[in-house]
Amino acid sequence: MSRFVIIFLACIVIAPLAAYLLENRFPALVSSGTFADYRADDEDDSGANETGERSHRISANRQGHFVADAYLNGRAVDMLVDTGATVTVLPESLAENIGIFLNSSDYKYAIRTANGTVHGAKATIDNLRIGKIRLRNIDTLVLKDQSLGEPLLGMSVLNQLKRFDISDGTLVLVQ
C-alpha cells in the first residue's frame, strides 16, 4: 500500500513538470493538436463584439508599418503585415522554431522579391493566432534566412478574414 501512495505522490509532482517540459522542448507537438487552442489567453475578451465577430487592432509603428504580435504554432512571433505579399513568408530559422522542417530539395519555387529572384519552399502553418483571431492551415513560403529579414503576414492570412480595414493609423482585422 505504501508503494501505491509513493507512486501516486510522484505522479502528482511529475505531471506539471512533464507538461512544462513538453511545451518548452517540443512546442510543435503541443501546438499541432487541439491542446494549444485551450490555453488561457493573457488578454481580455475585448476582441469579440456583440455580433460574434473577433477583431484585433494593430497600430502603425513609427515607420508607418503594421507589426502583428502573432503566435505561430504556439510560438510568439512579430510579423510585418504586407498586403503586397501573396502568401505569408517565413525565414527558415523561424520555420524550424515553429516545427516546420524542410529539405534542400524543397526549395524549388522561384519567388520574385524586391531584391530579385530567390527560391522558396511551400509549407503550412498549423495554427496562427493574432489576438482573438485564430486560423488554421495557413499556406506559407519559407525562404533561406539570408533572403528574408523578417516574417511577412501576407494575403494568405488576410484573405481568410471577414475583412480588414486601415484608418487613422490603425489596422483592424475582423474574423
TrEMBL record:
* Protein name according to UniProt: Peptidase A2 domain-containing protein
Concerning InterPro entries, the annotation shows: Aspartic_peptidase_AS (IPR001969), Clan_AA_Asp_peptidase_C (IPR011969), Peptidase_A2_cat (IPR001995), Peptidase_aspartic_dom_sf (IPR021109), Retropepsin-like_bacterial (IPR034122)
Source species, domain of life: Bacteria
Q: Does the keyword Acyltransferase apply?
A: no
- Species annotation: Roseibium aggregatum (strain ATCC 25650 / DSM 13394 / JCM 20685 / NBRC 16684 / NCIMB 2208 / IAM 12614 / B1) (Stappia aggregata)
What's any GO biological process attached to this entry? proteolysis
Q: Which UniProt keywords apply?
A: Hydrolase
Task: Provide the Peptidase A2 domain boundaries.
Answer: 77-92
**Record-level Gene Ontology MF annotations:** aspartic-type endopeptidase activity
